[in-house]
Write a structure and sequence with these properties.
- It comes from Haloarcula sebkhae.
- The chain has 187 residues and is of the alpha/beta class.
- It has a single domain, classed as Nucleoside Triphosphate Pyrophosphohydrolase, CATH 3.90.79.
- The strands form two sheets. A five-stranded mixed sheet has the order 1-6-7-2-5.
- The radius of gyration is 19 Å and the shape is globular.
- The termini are far apart.
Length: 187
């Protein structure tokens, strides 16, 4: 059994390296396209470990070319749109689908989340996320890209329930002051 495991892992090594190289190349390609569309955008890099299931999802999303997108959507008053995500308030976020541009994904996610159209103003920050498998220290790092956009609302009509106050538990979205520390910590 031990010899089999050694052969198995030796055969796996090129596959694992291929995942790391391909995911890194996908991230670099997306960053180049982001720069073409929005100019120079600050880029951060972080690495973190996740469980085996989350690692496998990261591998699959990388292979599909998915990018994580987040949006600070402002209204005419400069407030930021927040949506209820299982009891906590977050800025709209999601992933690209198929060959969808990240900016188009943000517009889609905001429409799905809040029922409003928005216009992307800028790419605020990109983060290269190195995802490690905490259950398998020999697994290669998978690289993913997360982009934060700044956007403005196109219409004042909201299809979802809007909170009048931060304590309104029945609302699915709300507007919060952009200078609020809690908003700055959402990404």
């Amino acid at each position: 059994m031990r010899a089999f495991r050694r052969i198995y892992y030796a055969a796996e090594a090129p596959f694992r390296m291929e995942i790391a190289e391909r995911s890194r190349a996908r991230v670099q390609e997306r960053l180049a396209r982001l720069e073409q569309e929005f100019g120079s955008t600050p880029v951060d890099q972080t690495t973190f470990s996740v469980g085996s299931e989350a690692y496998q999802r990261a591998v699959e999303r990388s292979q599909e070319g998915q990018v994580d997108v987040h949006a600070f959507v402002h209204n005419e008053s400069g407030d930021v749109l927040l949506s209820d995500a299982d009891g906590s308030w977050e800025i709209p976020q999601g992933q690209t689908q198929g060959g969808e541009r990240p900016a188009a994904a943000v517009e889609r996610v905001v429409t799905e989340t809040a029922g409003v159209a928005c216009t992307i103003r800028d790419a605020v920050r990109a983060t290269i996320c190195g995802v490690r498998n905490e259950s398998d220290p020999d697994a290669e790092t998978v690289y993913r890209l997360s982009i934060v956009f700044d956007a403005e609302i196109n219409s004042a009509k909201l299809d979802s329930d809007v909170a009048e106050t931060a304590d309104d538990a029945d609302a699915s979205i709300r507007w919060d002051d952009a200078s609020d520390v809690a908003v700055a910590e959402l990404v």
